[in-house]
Amino acid sequence: MRGIAGRAGRRFVSSLPALFGVLVFTFLLMRVLPGDPAIFFASGPNAGQAEIEDIRRRMGLDKPVPEQLLLYLKDIGTGNLGRSMTTGQPVLNDLRNRLPASLELTFCALLIALVLAVPLGILAALRPGSVVDHAVRLLCTLGVCVPTFVSGLLLIYVLYYLLGIAPDPTGRIDIFASQPPEVTGFLLVDAAIAGDWEAWWAAASQLVLPACTMALFVLAPLARMTRASMLAVLTSDFIRTGEALGLSRRRVILVYALRNALLPVITIMGIVFSTMLGANVLVEKVFSWPGVASYALDALLSSDYAPVQGFVLLMASIFVLVNLVVDLLYGLADPRVSIG
Amino acid sequence: MSALLEVEDLRVEFGTRHGVVEALKGVTLSVAAGETLGIVGESGSGKSVTAFCVMRLLERAGRISGGRIRFRGEDITRAGRRVLAPLRGAAMSMIFQNPRAALNPIRPVGLQIADVIRAHEAVSAREARERALALLEAVRIREPVRRLEAYPHELSGGMCQRVMIAMAIACEPSLLIADEPTTGLDVTTQKAVMELLAETTARRGMAMVLITHDLGLAAQYCGRIAVMEQGRVVEEAVPDRLFGAPGHPYTQRLVAASPRRDSTVAGLVGESEPRAVVPTGRRLLEVAGLRKEFGGVAAVEGVSFHLDAGESLGLVGESGSGKSTISRLVCRLLDPTAGSIRFEGEEIGAIPAGRFHGSPWRKDIQIVFQDHGESLNPRFSAFDCIADPLRRLLGMREGAQLRAQAEDCAARVGLPGELLGRFPHQLSGGQKARVGIARAIAPGPRLLVLDEPTAALDVSVQAVVLHLLDRLRREEGLAYLFVSHDLNVVRMMCERTIVLQAGRVVEEGRSEALFAAPRAGYTRELLAAIPHFEPQGEPVPG
After folding, report:
1. B51 — contact with chain A (CB < 8 Å)?
2. Helix, strand or coil for residue B370?
3. Chain A window 236-255: which residues touch B at a Cβ cutoff of 8 Å?
4. What is the per-residue pLDDT across A198-252, written as a single tens digit (0 to 9) for each?
5. Which pLDDT score is estimated for A125?
6. CA dist., res. B414 & res. B53, Å (int)
7. Which of A138, A270, A328, B358 gets the highest tally of CB atoms within 10 A of its CB?
């Protein structure tokens, strides 16, 4: 156990230079991109040169770039991510308010994807080349090649517009439902804590469509990975041992094969999670989901430096964190890892 | 005694990309209760397929196309899972080659034993654990309570095989099939495992089918032996008769090709003895105080030896003795922690291993690896494999001269020229071995390091390859550093032998003297552990 913690610690320390690199790179990238924030945030198209200069000075853009970078790093060191020009709020607050929305969506999507992908992967591996295998392959291919905004809109069209089962696809909770008192920021958790099941249901039904859209997109890597590693494990010697000594089919597949086959799936899961959190901005846009990705996109379009830099830093940190968690999980799941 | 297992005219087909291949062409065998039957044969003879058929563990591509398998009088040839599941593990069990891979890597071994017990008997988890503990004691695993929680990677190969045996006998089956149970284990471990198996089956009245390529092993532990060749049983007899007076030509060849205490390289392939090599007495290699540490642990410690030009020196020892490490140090694939390696009087140990390929000595010291399949580039044809060192070490350009030189190398190792265009996967094990040897002799080395060059080959192929190596040495005046776990092979191939244990030299001497009268206790132990099939150690007549 201590070995695993030590390894996690070492991994964390060794990822710090990468985090720093991300910081500097994003900073420089934002300066290189065309667009002048001072002009963008000036009161109007006919704002005077003096006003623009004033804004520029207030934002610290009149200083040379290296000095700006040092100031920025100093701010980061004191936990200050700057202020968003669009919302007028400190970036840290904005991110803190919006991150739970993204996390809740991503967690649910990952859960749905896993619940679907793992059994599908197993089924496909048990009968390679069969109808089931091909059906799973088709589903996975569709999931990857249909862009999320198309599948999201399709789901809305069918389930909301045609059938009327799903609620109005905007935001995290029906505007007429009462918002539960905020504890964690996760609506489902908060509603459950407050015992407000009506709000819970409202939030859950809002969540289903975007979560399914996201899940469909990441179904393929998870299901294909499960299938491939399951196929490899099923031909290994210890499965033959299990068969030779009369273990039940269920035990051989679920305890002997699946647990071994899930090891690489854990690794893929970490990558999939990080991707979903940051890159699925389209889902957030289609469903007007108040998450961090759409926030960062809006900021990027208006050359608002601070939120974009804050967002990239947040994503990089989450990526490191997720990798640590994956490492820990892997260490728990595979006794061979803790040595060496 | 009525037969416990009867196999009648069994035929098995495998569907492959190149059409249907018949793996078994009518195999008939029977095993009586309590009896031990040995099945010997080389790879591809169908001995393992026969066993998998009995257990019904054939892979998807395999199909029983004819014949019958009866167990306790019941026909199980086409039985479904429902009939088989209660039989497997409870009435007939199987243990496998490579025991560590045969165990679930992420489940404690105690639980795996308990899994087998609970698959056949309705017992509580606690009771199953108690019985698993008793079984670990029965297979003589030290500290059984602690080992219950151990994972396979924490156990040695021998211990894994003991755990496997514990699983196989957990539910008191009446038949145990052991498929190459000790291949890949050290001789002393092999002896311990085989004795455990023999004793266990005798005490519990179990019948055993021992599948092996090692004739000595079969002779020592089986009451009756069946010899298989290309999907058929060609001969079946008690060991004394089978090895004393083999009837079938294939058995005769197999017996002749198996290295014994008194065999010679020429004798293995049925030739007369060539005259002995006269050592030149010119010092080629001088190793002194060699030490190599891995992560602070010394794998090789204070090893010194020398090798004359044209001489062959054997390094023997069990796994972990440091013999492979020494071979890699000498051919400069590893850097020593301390000590000197002098070649032709020049200190080559100081040249970093990462840069040795650029040194002028590289072409003088070449290596032949154990796994001939893995050590050839799969995207290189045989010609490219042989021509590569010519291009890189001798700087030869593409053209007629390179072609001629590579063809000459191939001819010297007896590789037919028309095979040069083939890729490794299109060659047999023996042919790949020849390519590996041709590649090593291509740049004209003076020292050849041979790291278990025949360990992965069948005995008949091994005989031919050993003969080839011996002939090459005589004809080209090469010096060999010959690493092997097989003492009989080393005795035949080398004038002098060094016995290693835990990274240190235990004994050194002229091969005949060392094997005839070993001084160190460890050498005696090693020699005693080799299974042999000569009755009372006498040479086989004829």
Report:
1. no
2. coil
3. 236-238, 240-249, 251, 255
4. 888 888 888 989 999 999 889 989 999 999 999 999 999 999 999 999 999 899 9
5. 93
6. 38
7. A270
Nearest residue, CB atoms, A245 vs list B89, B98, B153 = B89
Q: How far apart are CA B216 and CA B237, in angstroms?
A: 15
CB atoms within 10 A of CB A34: 5
For range A257-278, the mean pLDDT: 88
pLDDT of B242-272, one tens digit each?
888 899 999 998 888 888 877 788 777 777 6
Structural domain spans, chain A:
9-77, 99-333
- The residues, ordered by sequence, that sit 6+ positions from B346 with a Cβ below 8 Å of its Cβ are B361
Q: List the single residue in A with minimal CA-CA distance to B171.
A: A245
A171 phi-psi bin (left φ>0, alpha ψ -120 to 50, beta other): left
Whether the pLDDT of residue B536 is over 50: the answer is no
Spell out a b/e string for B123-147, using b for 16 or more CB atoms within 10 Å of the CB, else e. Answer: eeeeebbebbbebbebbebeebeeb
- What's the one-letter identity of residue A148? T
In the sheet that holds B447-451, the strands lie side by side as B365-368, B447-451, B479-484, B312-316, B496-501, B504-510
Q: What is the token pair recorded at A24?
A: 């500097």
Spatial distance between the Cα atoms of B383 and B386, rounded to a whole number of angstroms? 5
Task: Output the CA angle B220-B224-B225, nearest 5 degrees.
Answer: 80
The secondary structure element, H or E, covering residue A110 is: helix A91-126
| Chain A positions in Cβ-Cβ contact with residue B170 (cut-off 8 Å) | 245
Q: How far B65 CA sits from the closest chain A CA (Å)? A: 22
C-beta atoms surrounding B306 within 10 Å: 14
User: Are residues A237 and B101, on separate chains, in Cβ contact within 8 Å?
Assistant: yes
Q: Which two tokens stand for residue A33?
A: 């991109």
Tell me which DSSP letter residue A83 carries. Answer: B
Q: Which residues of A touch B107 (CB under 8 A)?
A: 255-256, 259
State both tokens at A174.
């029906």
Q: CATH assignment of A99-333?
A: 1.10.3720.10
Give the count of Cβ contacts less than 8 A between chain A and B.
81
Query: CA of B120: which chain A residue's CA is closest?
Result: A246
Q: Which domains does chain B have, with CATH numbers?
A: 3-258 (3.40.50.300), 281-364+445-532 (3.40.50.300), 372-443 (no CATH)
Helix axes B249-257, B459-476, angle to 10 degrees: 50
